[in-house]
Design a protein that fits this description.
GO molecular function: peptidyl-prolyl cis-trans isomerase activity
Domain PpiC: 343-446
Number of helices: 25
Distance between the termini: 37 Å
Family: Belongs to the PpiD chaperone family.
Radius of gyration: 32 Å
CATH class of the largest domain: Alpha Beta
Number of domains: 4
Subcellular location: Cell inner membrane
Shape: globular
GO cellular component, one term: plasma membrane
């Protein structure tokens, strides 16, 4: 029973507290921030929630409590990322204690002692209790174990009693919050009119013909946007652009890369290891002890690097091969032959057109869209480009639809898995595959294989020597000492072709990483210091892999939104407005049918058709989903053309060819349920956002950590 074991482990908590206190005394980083008491600052307020100040001492005490529990249970010290996570937990607990509790008290929500007993040992056991007092082997809950534990609680050390008290407190808070959210969920009401509107939007069908002139058909460089226009647009749309405290920097890096001598030394070492691997009686143990990287002894083609996948074709059992270099790591392999695995691997890409939890008409529209994309690919269109722009699976879409390697053990839904693992050659599967998520267009990259290769592998990474690190620092320090302004920074970069300037825009004060730079907290704190001025150059910052010199190029203030804070976004908006005006002026007054108007307009005007689409899911071929255009079209009468109007991504003239109205129905329950479930699924998020906004939270932790 996990909880009992954890509670018993705390019998030595006094020793742990003393040890941690000594560590804190020695390192004390959290107490040495610029605004901390030890750091000499005067402001000891780490934040404000619903008008209540949170003192750094109170906040740090809660963090230390979380830290002590974590380290006592894990038996090790926290790393910086774990400590940052505990600070977030401590802050969120203050939010619950202050902002949420105010809401609970106003509504009279409580959890009585009787309810708590019922949650712990009654008829409605809390999931946390079920998890803590279940047999780890069988998973069966043992209520007697709870009862016996509570009977003996007063005989346990004070620390364990306190731990249980805190646990019960968390159960009360969890149940109170659940009551609050459930109350709001039950108050959700979708009127008949809204359900009917949703039904009509999903079921009414239209066939359209339209003229579309996209914004991108007008070259950006032909449109001049003035600061006055940007100011006017921001003033008119102030509510759309909420200010935040951010900083923007430019920076150069001085990588700490292994020198030739470092590489040569490692190359000699790995050649010596290759001789040892060849003669080792237990080659897997030898490889495990000497490798910098944990590597499996049995590999499928799917788990191999591209280089090894090609090389293994030439391996002979018993042979040692390499070294092969991949990045800064050398690999050697001892090949032990192959065997047949019970599980096969394959690699594939897909484009998902989502159709889960949709009506029959919406599914039909999704199928039509998917069939159109499949037809484009079969006609020669680029699969990866279409995946990036049309797939409803955002993670794989970023990789051109690639799902990497997976096995036929239930990793993928059954219809998808069966389609991929029935393919005998790479290439496009020439049919749609339907699953509970929608319609998949699948390209098999690497067909199924169930061959396992036994390979004892050693990977040794080249580490830069201290001399190499010192040389990189010398270059960075020399650069930082010779440039003190943005102008000097730019001139020095121009002279040194080895340096490349990178940009990091709108960095929030709480950021820990900057682009690909891990642990960039020191750079962020420098940028947010009150005495760091625009165009000022930073000192040298060090990470594991590089030294960094930055220059501060921009600041934004949450309470004072300026054009500079959103210049790119505002410029795009204003430029598109100007384009829309130019396109509209050129189209206005045009007569004839749409092809004639397009011909008169000239290059950039497209005339397209959309067949049997709905208002809810309509997708225009080139314009994509444009609700303004769809709304205009569905408001026309058959045979009627709209005037020229501006849509989301361009200028339109819509013509309604035909329309099939949604038949009248008596019961809209299905659509009420859809809308209710959609709203309820977002309830927790919406409640949290509303409470936090109402509490007017000011989080100033970044000043201290």
């Amino acid at each position: 029973m996990a909880l009992i074991t954890k509670i018993r482990e705390k019998s030595g908590i006094a020793v742990t507290v003393i040890a941690i206190s000594l560590i804190l005394f020695m390192v004390g980083g959290d107490l040495m921030g610029p605004n901390s008491m030890l750091g000499g600052g005067n402001d000891q307020t780490v934040g404000e929630i619903a008008g209540k100040d949170i003192n750094i001492k109170d906040f740090q005490a809660r963090v230390d409590g979380f830290r002590q529990n974590y380290e006592a249970q894990s038996g090790r010290s926290l790393n910086e990322n774990e400590l940052a996570s505990l600070r977030d937990q401590a802050w969120n607990q203050f939010v619950v204690d202050i902002a949420y509790k105010k809401e609970f008290e106003d509504l009279g929500l409580t959890v009585t002692d009787q309810e708590l007993v019922d949650m712990v040992q009654g008829n409605h056991i809390s999931p946390s209790i079920l998890q803590a007092f279940s047999d780890p082997t069988t998973g069966k809950f043992d209520k007697n174990a709870v009862v016996n534990y509570l009977k003996n609680l007063k005989t346990l050390p004070v620390e364990q009693q306190k731990s249980w008290e805190n646990f019960e407190k968390s159960l009360r808070e969890e149940r109170t919050r659940a009551k609050y959210e459930n109350m709001l969920k039950l108050s959700t009401y979708i009127p008949k009119a809204q359900a009917e509107k949703e039904y009509v939007a999903q079921t009414s069908k239209a066939t359209l013909r339209y003229l579309y002139v996209p914004y991108f058909s007008v070259v950006d460089t032909t449109i001049k946007v003035t600061d006055k226009q940007l100011e006017d647009y921001l003033s008119a749309h102030r509510s759309e652009y909420k200010g935040t405290d951010t900083r923007s920097i430019e920076y150069v890096t001085f990588p700490i890369q292994p020198a030739k001598d470092d590489s040569a030394a490692l190359y000699s070492e790995i050649k010596e290891l290759a001789r040892g691997l060849a003669t080792a009686q237990n080659d897997s143990a030898f490889a495990s002890m000497n490798s910098d990287i944990p590597l499996p002894i049995n590999m499928s083609l799917g788990t191999m690097s591209d280089q090894l996948k090609e090389a293994v074709k030439t391996f002979v059992p018993g042979g040692v091969y390499g070294p092969y270099r991949e990045g800064n790591t050398y690999y050697i392999y001892k090949y032990g032959g192959t065997r047949v695995d019970t599980v096969a691997s394959a690699r594939a890409s897909h484009i998902l057109i989502r159709a889960e939890n949709q009506s029959d008409s919406a599914k039909a529209a999704a199928r039509t869209k998917a069939e159109g994309i499949l037809a484009q690919i079969r006609a020669g269109a680029n699969f990866e480009a279409l995946a990036a722009t049309t797939s409803a699976d955002p993670q794989s879409a970023q990789r051109g639809g690639d799902l990497s390697y997976f096995q036929n053990n239930g990793q993928m839904v059954k219809p998808f898995e069966e389609a991929v693992f029935s393919a005998t050659a790479p290439g496009l599967i020439p049919r749609l595959v339907e699953s509970q998520f929608g319609f998949h267009i699948i390209k098999v990259t690497d067909p199924k294989s169930n061959t396992l290769y036994r390979i004892a592998a050693i990977g040794k990474t080249i580490a830069p020597s201290q001399a190499t690190r010192d040389e990189a620092y010398r270059k960075a320090d020399e650069f930082a000492n010779t440039v003190k302004t943005k102008t000097a920074f730019d001139e020095a970069v121009k002279k040194n072709k080895a340096l490349v300037v990178a940009n990091a825009n709108r960095i929030p004060e709480s950021a820990t990483n900057i682009n690909a730079i891990q642990n960039g907290r020191d750079i962020v704190r420098w940028a947010f210091k009150d005495d760091s001025d625009i165009n000022e150059v930073s000192p040298v910052f060090e990470t594991e892999e590089q030294y960094i010199v930055a220059v501060l190029v921009g600041k934004s203030d949450a309470k004072d939104v300026k054009v500079a804070d959103f210049r790119d976004e505002l410029t795009t908006k204003v430029r598109n407005q100007i384009k829309a005006e130019q396109i509209t002026a050129k189209l206005k007054g045009a007569t004839g049918d749409l092809p004639a108007i397009a011909a008169k307009y000239g290059a950039g005007a497209l005339v397209e058709n959309a067949t049997d689409i709905s208002l809810a899911t309509g997708f225009l071929t080139s314009a994509g989903f444009d609700p303004i255009a769809l709304g205009k079209a569905f408001g026309l009468k058959p045979g009627q053309k709209s005037g020229v109007f501006t849509g989301e991504n361009g200028v339109f003239i819509m013509e309604l060819v035909s329309k099939t109205e949604a038949p009248k129905i008596a019961d809209y329950t299905q659509y009420k349920t859809q809308l209710t479930q959609s709203l309820e699924s977002r309830m927790s998020y919406l409640v949290n956002e509303a409470i936090r906004e109402n509490a007017k939270i000011e989080d100033r932790r970044a000043k201290f950590f």
